[in-house]
Amino acid sequence: MSISPRKLNAFLLFKLPSAYFCGVRTIALNDTTCVVSVKHRWFNQNPFKSMFWAVQGMAAELTTGALVMSKIRTSGKKISMLVATNNGAFTKKAIGRITFTCDQGATIDQAIKKAIETGEGQTVWLNSKGINSEGIQVSDFNFEWTLKVKS
Questions:
Q1: CA-closest candidate to residue 111, choices 120, 119, 123
Q2: How far is CA 4 from CA 75, 120, 131, 140, in A?
Q3: What is the structure's pLDDT at 116?
Q4: Mean pLDDT value across the chain
Q5: Which of 26, 78, 85, 86 is most buried, judged by most C-beta within 10 A?
Q6: Which residues, at least 6 apart from 61, have a Cβ–Cβ distance to it below 8 Å?
Q7: Spatial CA neighbour of 64 closest among 9, 6, 104
Q8: What is the pLDDT of residues 53-105, one digit of tens each?
Q9: Which CATH fold topology does 5-149 show?
C-alpha cells in the first residue's frame, strides 16, 4: 500500500496533532518530490506576527520524512529512520501560505540501496525550502536522516 497525501494528513491528525492543528498539510507526494503547505494564522504565529520557526520546521521535516517513509515502504525492507541533525536559515518573514518542497527522492534511493547492500547504517542530508505565495524563499532547512536495516 502506497503513502498518499490524504493518508499522511490523517497520520498527522492522530500521530502528530500539533502539526495538524498548526495547519501543516501534505499537498503532493510522488517518487521524487514531496510538497507540504502551511498558512500563517494567529494559532501558529510568533510575537512578531510571522509564522513561528518550529511550525516551519515541522512542515519542512515532513517533506523529507514523508519521502523517506515512502521509499522505505517501496523497498520492502524493515528500515529504521531517525533525524540525527538539522539546521535552518530564515531569510524573510513567513506570512501567508508557505510551501515547502523536498525533491531528493533519488538521493534517498541511493542511501537505502547502500544500506540494504552493506547492512550498515547510512546517513543522508535532505533539503526543504519554504517559499511564500509570491515565489520568494523565506526559509531553508536541512535534515540529516539516519537509515539502518533492521535485523
A1: 123
A2: 16, 29, 22, 24
A3: 96
A4: 96
A5: 26
A6: 83, 86, 128, 141, 143
A7: 104
A8: 999 999 999 999 999 999 999 999 999 999 999 999 999 999 999 999 999 99
A9: Thiol Ester Dehydrase; Chain A (3.10.129)
pLDDT for 151: 80
Contacts 24+ apart (CB under 8 A), 12-16: 12/62, 16/58
Distance CA 150, CA 131 (A): 36
Residue among 6, 36, 49 nearest 141 (CA): 36
**Full-model pTM:** 0.95
In the chain, where the domains are located: 5-149
Q: Which residue, 59, 53, 41, 27, is CA-closest to 95?
A: 41
Query: In this predicted structure, what is the pLDDT of residue 34?
Result: 98
- Determine the pLDDT at residue 127: 98
In three-state form (DSSP H/G/I as H, E/B as E, the rest C), the secondary structure along 95-145 is CCEEEEEECCHHHHHHHHHHHHHHCCCEEEEEEEEEECCCCCEEEEEEEEE
Q: Give the other-Cβ count within 10 Å of 142's Cβ.
A: 15
The predicted structure's pLDDT at residue 1: 53
